[in-house]
Design goal:
Blueprint: H1 22-44, H2 55-60, H3 67-88, H4 100-110, H5 113-126, E1 131-137, E2 143-149, E3 160-166, H6 173-176, H7 180-188, H8 193-209
Antiparallel strand pairs: 1-2, 1-3
Helix pairs in contact: 1-3, 4-5, 4-8, 5-7
The protein binds manganese (II) ion.
The site of manganese (II) ion has 7 residues, from helix 1.
């Protein structure tokens, strides 16, 4: 039995049209994400003592693993974590604006939703090479927009992720060619703000109990 499973998309392959094409989603999910899942399962097959570790543990406690598998585990576990966060952070039924506690935090830390959106788009546009742009929460509760390279996650920086966009070329090139900014602007319309709100509320709850 496989340790890690390829999670199905939470919507139909054509549900994000016209912003993200069916062809892009099929390749992105069924081929690229699947390869990360298969690779990680393959690597861990020979290491039963790490087979009950979660993705987060494989990433955050990577230095406890045997040296020869650290980098491949980090890359593949990160590839799964980042892609799941991305695919599950979008919805065809987007409401196009943050709500409740996250809305208040965005207004507090960025001035307004519009100003947040501009800063986020600028950050995603400026990412050099392959990676992700994230909206995160710092341990003190302040929101922060950050970029990560390749399949790095924000977890080792002790940031709690709220949203991410995959800006590897494979996420948009088939459809948008080199026009990354158009992809980013359209992705904003697909953000699942209810999901983002639930991540933020979960952070606040843990902070209260911490
Ligand atoms: Mn990707």
């Amino acid at each position: 039995m496989d340790l890690f499973q390829l999670l199905p998309l939470p919507y139909a392959y054509d549900a994000l049209e016209p912003y993200i094409s069916e062809e892009t989603l099929r390749i992105h999910h069924d081929k690229l994400l699947k390869a990360y899942v298969d690779n990680l399962n393959q690597i861990l097959m020979a290491y039963p003592m790490y087979q009950h570790w979660t993705l987060e543990e494989l990433i955050c406690h990577n230095n406890f693993l045997p040296e020869n598998i650290r980098i491949p585990v980090l890359r593949n576990a990160g590839g799964i974590y980042n892609h799941n966060f991305y695919f599950y952070g979008m919805t065809p039924d987007g409401i196009n604006h943050p709500i409740r506690t996250l809305k208040d935090a965005i207004d507090r830390d960025f001035g307004s939703f519009d100003s947040f959106r501009k800063q986020f788009e600028q950050m995603a546009k400026s990412l050099f090479g392959s990676g992700y742009t994230w909206l995160t929460v710092q341990p003190d509760g302040k929101l922060l927009i950050v970029n990560t390279s390749n399949q790095d996650t924000v977890l080792p920086q002790l940031l709690t992720p709220i949203l991410n966009i995959d800006v590897w070329e494979h996420a948009y090139f088939l459809q948008y060619k080199n026009k990354r900014i158009n992809y980013i602007e359209n992705w904003v319309l697909l953000i699942d703000w209810i999901q983002a709100e639930s991540y933020y509320q979960y952070f606040l709850l843990n902070q209260q109990n911490g």
